[in-house]
Amino acid sequence: MDSALQQWQVVWQSALQALPTLLSYTPVTLGYALAAMLLGLPLGFLVALLRLTPVGLLRTLSGLYVSFIRGTPLLVQIFVIYYGLPSLGLTLNPLTGGVLALTLNAGAYLSETLRAAIQSVPRGQREAALSLGLNRSQTLWLIVMPQAARVALPSLGNTLISLVKDTSLISVITVVELMRSAQLVVARTFEPFGPYLMAALIYWAVCSVLEVVQRLMERRLARGTVAV
Question: Domain ABC transmembrane type-1 spans what residues (predicted)?
């Protein structure tokens, strides 16, 4: 009993000792996730439009991209980009390779979210906008996208939360973020449970805060919709 208590005290102490280091890299993790989200959104929007285009070749190519990304693990994609591209003459540093992999992965999932949101807007509204003299670009940005944004918001929030957790995978190519910092602490202290448990709690806390922000934004948009 006493030995078990002592072991838990060691774990707790190692977790508390690791906490300052882990907290210092939490904003870094958030930065990588936000960067991948901000870069993935325009990519996803472009792919969504290509998936809706009447041009068969573009629709097929964009569909293959989405299918490949969704059908392969993110870890494999990271390895292909970081370890595979140098054999083709393109060498990326770990940070660039990691963020690129996260961006390409997010872009594929975001494209499906945006495509579904765009298609959820009734076709009659597009036709009405065109009949009033708006061109296709104006119809897209002024009529379709404001309504599609409300539909897409929950999935966009979920994607950002997933990206926060997925940043842990780029630690395998030595990018120092929350997970990698925990690994470095473990390598120094030889006590794995405390630092890894603390890292898990920080991920949980960050994602919980993002979930609350997402719900607040959804409620605000819902009130705005009712008011209109």
Answer: 26-214
- pLDDT, tens digit, for every residue of 112-121? 999 999 999 9
DSSP per residue, 30-65: HHHHHHHHHHHHHHHHHHHHHHH-S-HHHHHHHHHH
How many domains is the chain built from?
1
pTM of the model: 0.91
Question: Domain residues for 185?
Answer: 2-227
Candidates 172, 154, 215, 169; CA nearest to 29 is 169
CB 49 within 8 A of CB 222: no
What are the backbone dihedrals phi and psi of residue 89, each rounded to the nearest 5 degrees, phi first?
Answer: 90, 10
73 three-state secondary structure: coil
| For the chain, counts of helices (H) and of strands (E) | 9, 0
